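Contributing new complexes? Match this layout with molybdenum atom.
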Amino acid sequence: MGQTESGWITTDCTLCYHSCGMEVFVEEGRIKKVRGLKDHPLNRGRLCPKGARVIEMVYHPDRLKYPLKKVNGQWQRMTWDDTLSEISDHLQRLKKEYGPEVLSIFSGSIGVENLEMMELAQRFKGAFGTPNFISVEGICYRMRIRARQMTFGKYPVEETNTKLYVLWGHNPEQSDFPLFLSLKENLAKGSKLVVIDPKKIPLAQKADLYLPIRPGTDGALALALIHVIIKENLYDREFVEKWTYGFDKLVPHIEPYTPEWAEKITWVNAEEIRKLARMYAEAESASIFQGTNTQDQTANGTQNSRAFAILQTMTGNINNPGGWVIGPRLAITGLGLPTEKKPIGAENYALFYDFWGRKSPYGQVVCFPDHVPDVIKALIVTGGNPVLSMPDSHAFKEALQKLDLLVVHDLFMTETAELAHYVLPACTHLEKNGLAYSYNVCHGIPYLMLRKKAIEPLYESRSEFQFWKGLANHMGLGEFFPWETDEEIVELELRSTGLSYNTLKEEKAAGAYYGEKRYGMEEYDRKGFPTPSKKIEIYSETFAQAGFDPLPTYREPDQSPLRDSELSQQYPLVLTTGARILYYTHSQHRNIKGLKERHPDPIAEIHPKTAGQYGIQDGNWILVESNRGQIKVKARLTEALREGVVSIPHGWPGEANVNLLTDVHCREPIMGYPQMKSQLCAIRKAED
Ligand SMILES: Nc1nc2c(c(=O)[nH]1)N[C@H]1C(S)=C(S)[C@@H](COP(=O)(O)OP(=O)(O)OC[C@H]3O[C@@H](n4cnc5c(=O)[nH]c(N)nc54)[C@H](O)[C@@H]3O)O[C@H]1N2
Ligand SMILES: Nc1nc2c(c(=O)[nH]1)N[C@H]1C(S)=C(S)[C@@H](COP(=O)(O)OP(=O)(O)OC[C@H]3O[C@@H](n4cnc5c(=O)[nH]c(N)nc54)[C@H](O)[C@@H]3O)O[C@H]1N2
Ligand code: SF4
Ligand SMILES: [Mo]
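Output block (do not edit by hand):
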């Protein structure tokens, strides 16, 4: 693949999915310095604390260095060739006996920002013939894309410059560094801010309105907002008449959803709901920024996303500067190969899998534990740590232990890798070429840049390209991976974009926008929207046909404090999980000293009054219990969090892993997403 260069190399950061621009200084084949790329529109020269410490990660002594095989419970060093040969033999045997569905491939959130990781895994999946590709798409983000697509026929995204930001379960200060940068600038210029969150996050101090909502009840609030906007005639009548389908059905539908009704459910004061409805409808432009996964992981997720789409529509905040805008479609050539068979979950969650013939390449990951070993007996994990990151670690761990074959390709020995039969060393993003793309945060215009290799792979680590190609070769599937280098892959991906590998390498190292954004409705005047009614579908026949409410409705979390049940008595507090910590990506980076010291302990945030009821003080180690298990974390008392709520970040290992508490069978009924933001728990002081 040729020697890498010395000096400053322009590439991106893949430590989280934002793909900020990064420059890396290389001397004698070693990375010496990194800095943010000034010309990148997302981070504009800055790096968050994770990106700034990437060198510590790349050269971490705990990096996996060579392939390992578990023999009698001990890791034994292997060569790549022998390992791939053994895996290949094993897969062939299983396939022959049980058919190709026997293999599943899991890709984590790294596979969302790393096109090649996802695409090559999907290529192998197709070459092997299994439909069972599963990923974080089954618990994060895809739900909103599909809900918006079913409403608009396309996927509009939030503009980063708006006159009114509605942060609805989203805390960009921790999770969305690029949005945080533009938000701060625009607030200084007079934009307004609303925060809807059970925690008064620091940004809420600057907000014009803060609504302390009970976790999992956002759908009720959204319905009440629609109610007020209609009742008070605050909607954009002209826009609604011209562009929407089914508004007449919405009007009687929202009759019962008064702010007073919502107050009982959401714990948000009815007058505050009215205030928000007026502020939102009257803003010059407004954009709802729903949490990247917050709404997805509630009992009402799909309907919440639909309700937000309807709110944006009713107020005319579609395709206007500062609203939700439909940008040009990114025409990257996919590498995935389709399979005829349906993946796990396709029957139970039909709209996740298929609508209007738009098939998704993903199985529903929450269905995985129940399909092992009956359907699935082998799993390859690439760039993910499902034991810590998927809901219900007990269920996932048990399933992984029942597998005939578990292969993990990662940088480190994770809790998932510890359960594997084979562990393969992966290289970091700075050791391979790829195509980086950003979408939302660049104002709805796709932005492409070369993720340029800065150094040669360390130790015996290999890229996803090398791994899948190698395995395919061993299995006689080499024809599906005809390329020699990862540069060729980037070239292929770019084929229909008008850009080329060389253009990105030589002329546009800092990246290039792909396509132009057009405001206004001219395009739809001519063609209509690509939905069955050719309009924006407030009322969705697609939902009705699939057996779901065609207009947004509300569903209480499966585990609810409002229900007087044995469960709510035993576990009286509301548990929300996974609020992001700036210093870590999911289960990663706790081995980076410069980050760990910034946030050393796994914590549970609790209001002092709630903690007081259990004799818990700030800094005490506590046990948190749910119907699925128990964990031990440190209590952090804060008046910022609503009383009666416990908020615990995810990704901590061992007995602090919050997914030991979450329940893979508490699911949103339409797309199957787990209710990780709204379960019940109990707390008590730990003995020592
Ligand atoms: N309770 C609860 N759980 C949650 C959430 C929550 O809110 N609450 N959030 C969920 C969400 S939204 C998501 S997206 C998931 C994320 O779930 P995962 O993606 O499974 O989580 P990570 O811990 O980021 O795992 C990524 C793994 O990839 C490895 N890796 C990094 N770079 C590379 C590479 O270049 N190649 C390879 N092969 N490996 C690499 C890392 O070492 C790490 O082990 O977590 C989910 N889990
Ligand atoms: N540093 C860092 N950044 C990340 C990640 C990471 O692991 N680390 N992960 C990335 C990924 S894959 C994802 S999906 C995104 C996640 O991004 P988001 O889902 O937007 O998560 P946060 O920004 O942490 O904001 C969640 C906020 O919602 C609040 N909240 C909790 N439950 C509820 C609820 O039921 N309703 C409402 N209204 N609010 C609630 C929490 O208190 C918190 O302030 O972050 C991405 N960015
Ligand atoms: S936000 Fe931080 S970790 Fe994420 S891509 Fe940007 S610099 Fe890297
Ligand atoms: Mo995510």
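Reviewers usually confirm one structural detail per submission. For this one: Residues 13, 15-16, 18-20, 43, 47-48, 50-51, 177 surround iron/sulfur cluster (ligand 3) (CB under 6 Å).
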